[in-house]
Write a structure and sequence with these properties.
Blueprint: H1 2-7, E1 22-24, H2 29-39, E2 46-51, H3 52-56, E3 66-72, H4 74-81, H5 84-87, H6 90-93, E4 110-112, H7 119-127, E5 132-137, H8 143-151, E6 157-158, E7 161-167, H9 168-177, E8 203-205, H10 214-223, E9 227-230, E10 236-240, H11 242-245, H12 252-258, H13 261-269, H14 276-288, H15 295-301, H16 308-311, H17 319-323, E11 344-345, H18 351-360, E12 365-369, E13 375-380, H19 381-390
Parallel strand pairs: 1-2, 4-5, 8-9, 11-12
Antiparallel strand pairs: 2-3, 5-7, 6-7, 9-10, 12-13
Length: about 400
């Protein structure tokens, strides 16, 4: 069975996966925001592409001219807008280049891999720091789709092919399905395996300004973790999760800039059914900081749907009309709040139990705590992958 595992091709894990939604690296932040609203899938980031032949007038079926250079999600937009200089004039900030959202992201977070590559090659790339692997989808498309590609930078086609994401979660899920070949490794504790990261925990205290967590939120996207919220004694009481923040919209930028870490956690959990006092607090604090231009961002969170068409004018993008997108504001309903207890384990938890827990919550990390709730560290998919790689 081990030989079968090593011979597995990455295309086998890509069956049924949707084609990547994409943006050109030359697009603006507003283009990204418009696309994120239109597609409305917070669990899958947009791919960002550099296609040289587009600017050189070459035909679209020239092989090797398109390259996925990164990925963008709603958290990237929120963190960008939450900077004070951008909140002073959101309309101007949204017209800045999309490439600014990719600054500070390490090279190799997104990597290309051919469909016939082995699963072992994919594991090695993730061990080197890759989060998302770009895999071609074997399909044939009519010439009409190529014509659409010429006029619409958000097409799913690049070099005449469609691509999909292969993620760390996909590989961990596959490893769980064939966990027996790794016995007795799965029954060992996460502490004994040395995969509990105790040194690089991203954390703030409950009463700290949420703005102090802004660089940590960006780091948590890169590290595929989250920002822990601790009480005065160092116990884990919550988190600012990129996955949860992805379920918000750009109005959360104003909340990050004005609320405490604890209040921001409440804001994210209540998004779509915001308490009036919380919205009022954000507006008042924006005014106190002379950031009245950002108040318009908060209108959406207050649920003023009647005004949503006019209020979103600051971030409208011509790509909606050019590509036939639906446009309009992404609607949110109150989501079920995921308790921090759901993504916690203990140092003595077994590897297989932690894998099941993380996969069931679709979380790329899990907090490790003692019995009294004191935060010990965090376990990630990437750390798990290194352990499995050592035993192949």
């Amino acid at each position: 069975m081990a030989d079968s595992f090593l011979a597995r091709e990455v295309s086998d894990l890509c069956l049924g996966k949707p084609a990547l939604r994409s943006l050109a690296v030359s697009a603006t932040v507003a283009d990204a925001l418009s696309a994120l609203r239109r597609f409305g899938d917070s669990s899958s980031p947009l791919s960002v592409w550099s296609c040289n032949h587009r600017s050189q007038g070459k035909p679209l079926d020239v092989d090797g001219e398109c390259l996925c250079v990164g990925k963008v999600c709603m958290v990237d937009v929120i963190c960008f807008l939450a900077r004070e200089e951008n909140l002073k004039n959101p309309a101007v900030a949204l017209q800045k280049p999309l490439s600014l959202l990719l600054h500070g992201v390490p090279a190799g977070v997104v990597r290309h891999l051919e469909p016939h590559a082995s699963l072992l090659e994919a594991v090695d790339l993730i061990a080197e720091g890759a989060q998302n692997l770009v895999i071609p989808i074997h399909s044939h498309f009519p010439s009409r789709k190529k014509l659409i590609q010429r006029s619409c930078p958000n097409s799913t086609l690049h070099d005449g092919r469609e691509f999909c994401w292969l993620t760390q979660e996909d590989i961990i899920r596959y490893l769980l399905n064939c966990i027996g070949i790794f016995s007795p490794l799965p029954n060992r504790t996460v502490e004994s395996l040395g995969i509990v990261d105790k040194e690089s925990i991203l954390a703030v205290h409950y009463d700290d300004p949420a703005s102090s967590a802004l660089p940590l939120i960006s780091q948590s996207l890169i590290k595929q973790t989250s920002v822990a919220i601790l009480d005065s004694e160092g116990r884990l009481v919550g988190e600012i999760s990129p996955a949860a923040l992805n379920c918000c919209d750009e109005s959360a930028a104003a909340a990050v800039a004005t609320l405490s870490a604890g209040d921001l956690m409440t804001y994210i959990d209540c998004f779509g059914d915001m308490p009036e006092e919380l919205v009022k607090m954000v507006k008042e604090r924006l005014a106190a900081k002379n950031l009245e231009a950002a108040v318009e961002l908060v209108v959406a969170a207050a649920g003023d749907d009647d005004d949503s068409d006019s209020s979103t004018a600051i971030s409208s993008s011509s790509s909606d009309e050019e590509c036939g997108g639906g446009g309009g504001r992404r609607r949110h309903s109150p989501r079920v709040v995921r308790s921090t207890e759901d993504i916690m384990c203990h140092p003595w938890s077994s590897l297989v139990a932690v894998m099941i827990q993380m996969l069931s919550h679709r979380s790329a990390y899990i907090w490790v705590v003692e019995e009294d709730g004191m935060l010990v560290g965090v376990v990630t998919y990437a750390a798990m992958m290194e352990v499995f790689r050592e035993h192949l």
